[in-house]
Specification:
The complex is a heterodimer of chains A (459) and B (255). With 459 residues, chain A is of the alpha/beta class. Chain A is 43% helix and 11% strand. The radius of gyration of chain A is 22 Å and the shape is globular. Chain B is globular, with a radius of gyration of 22 Å. The chains are: A alpha/beta (459), B alpha+beta (255).
Chain lengths: 459, 255
């Protein structure tokens, strides 16, 4: 494998040198975000100036099976949370079965803390369109869908425009690039439901139904949209494909780690000095990201954070040097998820944070599975009581018990996600829960956590 | 259905009469639009979510008439359409304002100030969650995470982004909406009404000149990593008005 030598170049990502030793330029790797600061970054013209649609040209010179094998060899893993190898998903599509095949892009970005696909699509929608054309060529699909959450109209406008431009330029429609292949892309706006980010609920929703998860098997690769073979991929996964085809799988594998190769978008948010998007090889640490971006807001320290959205068990300042790749985060007891690094400082009440997330899960539970529907309801009741100073000590074990009765006992991962903040916050901050109970109230002042708190003090 | 224990019985009398249809001219116009939407999908039922957005573009909410229309156009029962319409939070079930003001109160935005903004807006407007000002201009609601956490606290108006809000900026925003002054989001196009927004959601591109390009490329937080990677502005003072102590950590600046 040619991975060893070039990897050393990016070796800094896996060496927790307490930050300062490596310059940020070497730790970051803007690929999808490389030209977001161009004045009209979203246009086809800008995209082409940055080697746009070159990956497609190279893909069309290969056979579809070669494209699948190439993406599989690159080691690209799903960027929507689960980290399943993208090329393998494509390979699961049965060929020669006489049924239509579909590609559905999951742009329903709704996991609390997650904010990568929306800015990506706002600034660079053609990377997705090109990736979709390549994916459809590979899996032999003539109709693809972008399921965008409806609450982001500015992104919807740019997707409408990007797809229109792609048709006008002959990348979509009939006989793409003289390949004899046809492809239509439909941009579909959802209507507000977190659960539709779950791939089978998304398919039900795209079929015009309530978004409720399906029992698997059959998996979407066999019976997906309209019971036909379907690939469901996250936006960032598909948008990463053109660069892999264009610059080569070895270039891609030279970044990140052996099992988690490549670049990805990390989204830093919360009480940090520099919230925003950081595109870096997989395996960078939160300490490195904070060091290069100015750390926590002045005068405060990190208390807890999520590695990949609220559904991934929370971490504390003990975990600053955990490599943010699939294996590293997993080994430390959480999941890489969507790489949504929500950072909270010492002014934040953990009970308040977890209560709010739990209210979210209760609101968004689709109601199909009893443990999730009923369990999230009861979790909210207990948490509200504790936060209001009306809890009793036995509530803490009850919280754990209810979370345990949700976790792994529902069709989809929403229930597991609801249990994560409960388990992890009780593990690291049980004393804070007890403080709410013994002190009969919340010891924190929410005003101190706000964006404007410190400016008010100094004013 | 049984009477409830408080004694206020549920009427078991005549079932509700079927919803009235749209006026013929409206119906003809919507049918033409619906045909265009349905043609985008291999199976007509897939058009249901866009068609519900379409009925909102006509009436501002999903009425029984809108449900009947979707059912008839797609060959579904009104029960099937109602089941879907009530599942998704973006479908408004009663007449509401021209401007849907949503304050994110999911954990991160709430902690960063979303709770305070929502409370102040409730007082300022004199309405509660999911209620509309008497002039029919503004409907206030709290919303869940809208994928803009790096711009927290976030307020959405008709699903355009208003980033890094404070109680003061949010009150000024709704005052502008109430006074009919033009309002431009941080990211997105100059505001149109809720009905006009719903038409875009139904899949009809925004035809206004400059709407796609409005507010420019990526927002400042989206660019922070790129700038640092290039050796520009390590702490990106473009992001927040948070930074009097920003100079304290001196990493190598500039080139």
């Amino acid at each position: 494998m040619s991975v060893s030598t070039p990897k050393e170049r990016h070796g800094g990502t896996s060496q927790p040198e307490a930050g300062g030793g490596t310059s940020p330029e070497k730790l970051l790797a803007p690929v999808l975000s490389a030209f977001w600061d161009e004045p009209e970054s979203w246009t086809l013209e800008t995209y082409r100036r940055h080697e746009g649609y070159e990956g497609l040209r190279k893909a069309l010179a290969m056979t579809p099976d070669e494209v699948i094998a190439y993406v599989k060899d690159s080691g690209l893993r799903g960027r929507g949370g689960a980290g399943f190898p993208t090329g393998m998903k494509w390979q699961f599509i049965p060929q020669g079965d006489g049924k239509p095949h579909y590609l559905v892009v999951n742009a329903d970005e709704s996991e609390p803390g997650t904010c990568k696909d929306i800015p990506l699509l706002f600034a660079n929608p053609h990377s997705l369109v090109e990736g979709m054309i390549i994916a459809c060529y590979a899996i032999r699909s003539e109709h693809a869908f972008i399921y965008l959450r409806g609450e982001t109209v500015p992104v919807l406008r740019r997707l409408h425009e990007a797809v229109r431009e792609a048709y006008a330029a002959g990348y979509l429609g009939k006989d793409i690039g003289g390949s004899g292949r046809n492809l239509d892309i439909t941009v579909h706006a959802g209507a507000g439901a977190y659960i539709c980010g779950e791939e089978t609920a998304l398919l039900d929703s795209l079929e015009g139904r309530r978004g409720q998860p399906r029992l698997r098997p059959p998996f979407p690769a066999v019976e997906g949209l309209y019971a036909c073979p379907t690939v469901v991929n996250n936006v960032e996964s598909i948008a990463s494909v053109p660069a892999i085809l264009n610059k080569g799988k070895d270039w891609f594998k030279a970044m990140g780690t052996e099992k988690s190769p490549g670049f990805t978008l990390y989204s830093l948010s919360g009480h940090v000095a520099g919230p925003g998007q950081y595109e870096a090889p997989l395996g960078i640490t939160l300490r490195q990201l904070l060091d290069m971006s100015g750390g926590m807001r002045p005068g405060h320290r990190l208390k807890f954070w999520t590695p990949g959205g609220s559904s991934t068990p929370m971490f504390t300042d003990e975990h600053l040097d955990v490599p943010l790749d699939y294996e590293g985060v997993g080994a430390a007891g959480s999941m890489l998820g969507t790489k949504a690094l929500q950072c909270f400082d010492e002014t934040t009440c953990v009970v308040r944070a977890v209560t709010r997330w739990t209210e979210f899960y209760a609101h968004e539970s689709c109601g199909k599975c009893t443990p999730c529907r009923e369990g999230t309801y009861w979790l909210v009741q207990l948490l509200r009581d504790i936060e209001a100073g009306k809890g009793v000590m036995s509530d803490l074990d009850k919280l754990n018990d209810i979370a345990d009765n949700i976790n792994g006992k529902s069709f989809c991962a929403l229930g597991d996600g609801a249990a994560s903040p409960i388990f992890s916050s009780l593990k690291y901050f049980r004393a804070e829960y007890e403080q709410h109970i013994t002190g009969k109230g919340c010891p924190f002042d929410p005003r101190k956590s706000t964006l404007w708190a410190d400016t008010e003090v100094n004013a | 259905m049984t009477a409830n224990p408080t004694g206020q019985g549920v009427s078991l009398g005549m079932p509700q009469l079927p919803a009235p249809d749209f006026p013929a001219d409206v119906r003809a116009r919507l049918e033409a639009d619906a045909a265009e939407v349905i043609a985008r999908y291999p199976d007509s039922r897939s058009a249901l979510l866009p068609l519900l957005h379409l009925t909102q573009s006509e009436e501002g909410h999903v009425s029984r008439t809108g449900i009947r229309f979707c059912a008839e156009v797609l060959g579904l029962t009104t029960a099937e359409v109602t089941a879907v319409a009530t599942f998704y939070t973006m479908y408004r079930r009663k007449p509401s304002g021209d401007y849907q003001v949503g304050v994110c109160t999911n954990t991160l935005c709430a902690v960063m100030g979303g709770d305070a903004i929502f409370d102040e807006l409730k007082q300022h407007l004199g309405v509660g969650n999911n209620e509309t000002t008497p002039d029919g201009k503004v409907t206030l609601e709290h919303i869940e995470c809208n994928a803009a956490c790096d711009y927290a606290p976030v307020v959405m108006v008709n699903w355009e982004f208003f980033d890094n809000q404070t109680p003061e900026s949010a009150k000024a925003l709704v005052d502008d909406l109430l006074a009919g002054r033009p309002v431009e989001p941080t990211r997105g196009a100059p505001l149109c009404t809720y009905k006009e927004t719903a038409r875009i959601l139904a899949g009809f591109p925004d035809e206004r000149e400059g709407a796609v390009a409005a507010s420019g490329g990526a927002g400042p937080a989206s660019l922070i990593g790129l700038r640092i990677a290039r050796g520009e502005s390590p702490h990106a003072p473009v992001v927040h008005p948070r930074g009097e102590a920003r100079g304290e950590t001196t990493t190598e600046g500039g080139e």
